[in-house]
Structures are given as structure tokens and as C-alpha cells.
Amino acid sequence: MKKSTLILFVLIAVFSAVTFVACNTDVVPVRSVTLTIDSTHMKVGENRTLYATVRPADAADTSVTWTSSDESIATVDANGKVSAVAQGTATITVTSNFDNTKKATCTVNVYDPYSIPLTLELIEDGDFTLTIKKYETPNVYYSYNGGPLQITGASVQLEDCSAGDTIALYRTINEPVPPITIRCSSDCYVYGNVMSLIDSANYATKTIVPEGAFMALFKYNDRIISHPELDLVLPATELAARCYDSMFYGCPGLKRAPELPAEELANDCYANMFYLCSGLTKAPELPASTLADHCYDSMFHSCSSLTKAPELPATTLEEYCYHRMFDDCTALIDAPLLPAKTLVEYCYEEMFEGCVNITSITCLATDVSAEGCTDYWVYGLHDQGTFYKDPSMDWDTGYSKVPAGWTIVDYPTT
CA 312, CA 104: separation in Å to the nearest integer? Predict the structure, then answer.
């Protein structure tokens, strides 16, 4: 073979090798895998989806695999959906299928909200004073950071506290007693099961609340704040008169209302409950179909951040049941459908007074003859809107009927 031919073959081989390497450098590797959060709290039975980002977006393979460190605590499926199984802590890991050294983790703390006593968690470092106005009620006990129970007295003074420190509260009562009112010297999260102030030993399963038990519990406490993840629990399904009356009156830091599962109500049970809770953005569901006198009286009065009202399914009403329920809820846009056919004394009196952003109301009543049943119920509403009514009913206009300027339309029967 001639020397020139050999040189040509060598050059061709070198060019081919360089070309092969260059082509393979077009494979884009995964540089990182990240999650939007690195830790979270979840309630037992809750589901939540985690979202992973693989970078760069044009990597050769952006698929990932999800795993749990303890599936008895939390499981995760192929799409990152996490299911909380039992109390404890599990680590959820997402790993690149292209490069298993690229991964991210999220610590999932699973808790049972019913098993946590009513708890205050400090938000800032420093001294802290807890004031308990007891009105001669049985002793209230507290546990600081899980320590031994101690009697509160009129106040508890704690020095050199750290953010994250907790104060759990306990009491045992078996019958109607004068309530307590709790005040805090600095901002703190509130969460846990309020039933620890009813039965210190069996609060996790307690569902019956005595008369007036939580009346004015946090009234005018402008230091309590809804925890971003942990829930405040009011699990009672059997209520008594005034049990939650004014419980959070004047608490602007309460942004999420606790669930209220009771289906049968008692006199004044929710009266004034969230009055002046200006930070409240979401109302609880209200499944009760059996009402009582004044049961929802002024419940959301002046909740100026509330935009949507809960459904009100009851078809049989009681005196003053919805009296001033949404009075001065200036951000409220959606009014609940009102299915009751026969109204009773003062049942809707001032119900939507001052709700300047409501432009639609559906009321299916056919008998509005009861004294004061719609007195001033739409006073101060927007000057234009739509009022949906039962086709058989004729309504007049005015502050106590249908707002002047509103269009009156028959509600569809099918």
C-alpha cells in the first residue's frame, strides 16, 4: 500500500472518531432535580401532590421515580401524589431516571389533628405572657414544650422563649361552667383540638360540648394567628347553647376557620363566633339541617375579607337563625341559596346588610308574612343586581324586600 493511501485511511478514521464523539456530546445530561417544598405537614388521610422540576428542560431524559422512606407513614405514587397513612415522619425522594445521583427530598410530617391538644406556638423569640381570665372555672393546666403539667393561675410568664416553643392547654369539665378567655402578649400560632379544654384525658375522641364551654375563648385576642399548615379542630357533633358564642370575636389573625361538623344546632351556638375576624378569607362548611334560635346570629359580622358564603341547606328555619349573619361582609360576592319556603320571625333580619359587592341573591321563600323576617336584610347592597325567586311568589322592592334597581327573575324549577 502506498504511503499516501495509508495516510488517507488514517485521516478518515480520525475524522470518523471525532464525529462520533461530537455526536454523542449532543446528549444533554440532567443537572438538577428540585421540589417546590422541602418539608410539609399532612393530616392522616390527606392527599397532596408534590411537583418536581428537572433541569435543563431539554435533558435527554426528564422522567423521575418517586419513593417513600416509610410507606406505613406516607406513600407516594408515580405522579408524586403523597397519601398520609399514620402519624410519624417519612421522607419522600424523587430521583432522576437518567442520573440517579440527581434527586430531591421532602420531609412529610403526618399528624392526627384530633390527638394534638389546643396549642399556642410562639412565632418570635423573647418573653411571653399568657393570661387566663377564668371566671371561677376549674383550673386550667399547661405544658411548656411537652413538659409536665402546671396550673396556669391568672397568668403564665415565660422568659427567654424561642420561636417554635409550644404551650399546650388542658382542663376537665363535665357540666356547664363559666368560660375562660385567653390572651397572649405576642404573636403565636393556634392549632390542635379545643376539646383538651373539656376532657384533658380523652379529648381526642370527645364530640360533645357543654353549654357555654368555649364562649369568648379568644375574644379580642389579636395575637393568635392561623398556622400555615396545622389545623385548629372543633370536632363536636353534639352542641349545647352558646357553646361557641363569640369564640373568636375580634381575632384578625384567624385566616382559616375550623371545620364545624354538627348537623343539629343549639340556641346561640355559633352566635358572634367570627365577629370582626377581618382576616378570615374562607368560611367553614355548615352542613346543619336542624337549626335553633339565634344559631348563626352575627356569625360572620364584619368579616371584611370573606368573599364566599357557605351553603345553607336548612329548609326549616328558627327565630333569628340567620340574623345579621353576613352584616358588613364588604368583600362578599357570592350569597348562599336560601331554600326555605316559610320564613319565621326575624330569621333573615339584616342578614346581608352592608354587603356592598353582592349582586345576586336566590331566595325561594313563598311565605314571608312572619314579623321582621326580612327587615333590612338587603340594606346597603349594590344598586344593580339580580334577585331569583320562586315563580309563584311576588316580591316588592325596598330595603326589606328586593333592592330597588335589581332585576327580579323566576328561579328555574327544572
Answer: 45
In whole angstroms, give the CA distance from residue 337 to residue 12. 82
**Exposed e or buried b for every residue in 32-55, given b needs 16+ CB within 10 A?**
ebebeeeebbbbbeeebebebebe
Helix, strand, coil percent content, the chain, rounded in steps of 5:
10, 30, 65
Average pLDDT score over the chain: 92
Residue 328's alpha-carbon distances to 21, 221, 285, in angstroms, are: 72, 21, 20
Sequence-ordered list of residues with C-beta below 8 angstroms from that of 22, at least 6 positions apart, any chain: none
Q: Name the grid cell of 90.
A: 417519612
DSSP at 36: S
Lowest mean pLDDT among 2-16, 243-257, 388-402: 2-16
> What is the DSSP-derived secondary structure letter of residue 130?
E
265 closest CA partner among 291, 235, 237: 291
Distances in Å between the Cα of 236 and the Cα atoms of 204, 239, 247, 259, 264 are: 11, 7, 14, 10, 11
180's grid cell: 375562660
- DSSP track, 258-324: PP---SB--TTTTTTTTTT-TT--BPPP----B--TTTTTTTTTT-TT--BPPP---SS--TTTTTT
How far apart CA 358 and CA 378 sit, in angstroms, is 10
% of the chain surpassing 90 pLDDT: 85
Q: What number of helices (H) and strands (E) belong to the chain?
A: 1, 22
Q: What is the pLDDT of residue 372?
A: 97
Distance CA 95, CA 103 (A): 4
- Check whether 24 has a pLDDT greater than 80: no
The answer to whether 322 and 348 have CB atoms below 8 angstroms apart is: yes
CA dist 126 → 41, 160, 165, 182, 223 (Å) = 26, 5, 11, 19, 15
Tell me the CB-side half-sphere exposure of residue 50, using CA atoms within 13 A.
35
**Going by C-beta distance under 8 Å and a sequence separation of 6 or more, which residues neighbour residue 193?**
113, 114, 115, 116, 117, 118, 203, 204, 233, 235
- Kindly report the pTM of this predicted structure: 0.86
